[in-house]
Design goal:
The complex is a heterodimer of chains A (257) and B (294). Helices cover 31% and strands 24% of the residues of chain A. With 257 residues, chain A is an alpha/beta fold. Chain A has a single domain, classed as Rossmann fold (3-Layer(aba) Sandwich), CATH 3.40.50. In chain A, β7, α6 and β8 form a beta-alpha-beta unit. Chain A is globular, with a radius of gyration of 19 Å. Chain B contains eleven helices and two strands; from the N terminus they run ααααβααααβααα. In chain B, α1 packs across α10, α2 runs antiparallel to α3 and α6 crosses α8. Chain B has 294 residues and is mostly helical. Classes of the chains: A alpha/beta (257), B mainly alpha (294). The interface between A and B is medium-sized, with 37 and 23 residues.
């Protein structure tokens, strides 16, 4: 469903800081896969997400989603099918707007933003239901500004907003990295649950090897712009955190929380 | 004394509409839009031209509104499409508007004779209860309240939600599948439209056009927005837009007090600058306290 072929990307071209990151990078992801991507800093994990979402343009190469060539499409056009949750909990919500307002915006994705009333009262009960699953008590705080929530609460809200419209592809960019260990676990469990319930295809970049082992259906390890490990199924299930570490022993990876 | 207070409220209401425009660009979009220094006199210039050409005074307000929207859209296009910095985009539009405003009127100063019909003429001389004497304040109040109510309503629509999200977190707009650039252009158009509307109303009140009348518009609007949001922002059941209107009235009151205390017209810009720094410092001090709580 997602196919990257022959991706080339060089940063700071023709300067002393020139860095060739990708030269002929290929990646194919099937529908329903939940891919965990690990790798050292600078291995290109986040850049790949940015190339998929359209925030960074590759120097050359082709990106296909659901059989359609989206290489030249802008990020907000791609967003119709691709949702994303960022590392920064502030990035997924509008801080000065209430939870109800934020959910109403996310719920209207793909629809027209015209002069009809912004708040979606018809779906209020549905929003409450979505929030009650979190067990954070947010269902009774629909009128609270998103900016007043804790990092974990905001990220949980961002996750619900991102998956609401059932995107073809969900990109998770170290979305638990800025949270305390407990909140990170809660958000990670919620992520897994939402991906399963909505049968989403997802790519999760993470520095947490434990998450890469425990969650997902496929693991990819990246190093300096190439894939050094790509496992799924039986083979993946037999791997432990130590196996990943051994494979990457010379690259510093923060292990677990 | 009553006359002075009425004058302050009167001025505050007319300029308050301008402050609502600044509120959109500055507070909602987080865009320090200097083009308002040009779109305020643009509203005056368009109205001078229209009134002198016999166009109905209320229609003049709508035409000025549209002209302001066009000016704001230009600033937005400069910023979004040509990637010029926000402050600079506004300065460019403001500079160009000086020539445009001059061209529209044809000279740097113009006056409307006292018997020219304006929006205030709907209250004729023989109206009972002496309402005629209060016609300026009544009409200004009605127009300011209508504008405020319409803005409140707009900010609660789906389009308004997107505008608020664009200033708060442009990424969210992208995630929603919309172009944040377009939303920004729309917001700047709306902001400048209100500023030009305020200029149009001001022209019909003072009956005099001066091509340099826009100097300091942004700073004045900023001061009102900061007073409005920091002083009245915490009061329940009072919308921020009402706070901004009240902020402008307070601002005008401060200026009047300074004048009564013996300062001259030439000193106003200095008072504006000092007042502005004071409100900025106060609002920042408040903000810091708020952040610590979070």
């Amino acid at each position: 469903m997602l196919k990257l072929s022959g991706i080339y990307k060089t940063f700071n071209k023709s300067t002393v800081d020139e860095k060739v990151l990708f030269s002929g990078f290929d990646l194919s992801i099937n529908k329903g896969e939940f891919v965990a991507v690990v790798g050292s800093n600078g291995s290109g994990k986040t850049t790949i997400l940015n190339i998929i979402s359209g925030d960074i343009a590759p120097d050359s190469g082709k990106i296909e989603l659901n059989g359609e060539d989206i290489t030249d499409k802008k990020n907000f056009v791609r967003a119709a099918n691709i949702a994303r949750v960022f590392q920064d909990p502030a990035a997924g919500t509008s801080p000065s707007m209430t939870i109800f307002e934020n959910l109403s915006i996310a719920d209207n994705k793909g629809g027209r933003f015209d002069l009809r009333r912004g708040l979606n009262y018809k779906r209020k009960d549905h929003y409450r239901e979505l929030l009650s699953v979190l067990g954070m008590g947010l269902e009774d705080r629909l009128g609270t500004r998103a900016g007043a929530l804790s990092g974990g609460q905001r990220q949980a809200l961002a996750l619900i907003m991102a998956t609401m419209a059932k995107p073809s592809l969900l990109l998770l960019d170290e979305h638990t990295a800025a949270l305390d260990p407990k909140s990170a676990d809660i958000v990670m469990n919620l992520t897994d649950k939402l991906i399963h319930e909505n049968s989403l295809t997802a790519i999760m970049v993470t520095h947490n090897l434990r998450y890469a082992v425990e969650y997902g259906t496929r693991s990819i390890m990246m190093h300096e712009g190439s894939i050094v490990l790509d496992v799924s199924g039986e083979k993946r299930n037999s791997l432990t955190i130590d196996d990943y570490l051994a494979k990457f022993n010379r690259i510093s990876i923060e292990c677990g929380n | 004394m009553v006359g002075i207070i009425a004058g302050i409220i009167q001025d505050g209401l007319i300029y308050g509409i301008m402050a609502l425009g600044v509120y959109i660009s500055l507070k909602i979009l987080d865009f320090p839009d200097l083009s308002v220094d040009g779109s305020f006199p643009l509203g005056m210039a368009v109205t001078t031209y229209c009134i002198l050409h016999g166009i109905q005074p209320y229609l003049c307000l709508i035409i000025a509104f549209a002209a302001g929207a066009a000016a704001g859209a230009v600033t937005g296009l400069l910023h979004v499409k040509l990637k010029i910095k926000d402050l600079l985009s506004g300065i460019i539009t403001m500079t160009a508007l000086y020539s445009i405003n001059y061209t529209i009127v044809g000279k740097p100063n113009e006056f409307l004779s006292v018997d020219t019909a304006t929006v205030f003429s709907v209250i004729p001389k023989n109206t009972p209860f002496g309402l005629y004497n209060y016609r300026y304040i009544i009409i200004s109040f009605i127009i300011a309240v209508i504008v405020k109510k319409l803005l409140d309503w707009y900010l609660k629509t789906k389009s308004g939600f997107l505008l608020r999200a664009a200033g708060d977190n442009a990424r969210l707009v992208v995630t929603t599948g919309k172009d944040p650039g377009k939303v920004k252009i729309l917001g700047l158009a709306l902001g400048n439209a209100l500023v030009a509307l305020s200029g149009a109303l001001n022209l019909q009140y003072t009956r005099s056009f001066n091509v340099s009348a826009g100097t300091g518009t942004l700073v004045m609007g900023l001061a009102a927005v900061i007073i409005g949001t920091s002083v009245f922002g915490k009061i329940k059941h009072l919308t921020l837009t009402s706070g901004v209107l009240l902020g402008m009235i307070i601002y005008k009151g401060c200026i009047s007090l300074a004048m009564l205390a013996g300062l001259e017209a030439k000193d106003t810009n200095m008072i504006v600058a000092v007042l502005f720094v004071i409100t900025l410092v106060i609002s920042r001090a408040k903000k810091k306290g708020g952040e610590q709580l979070c």
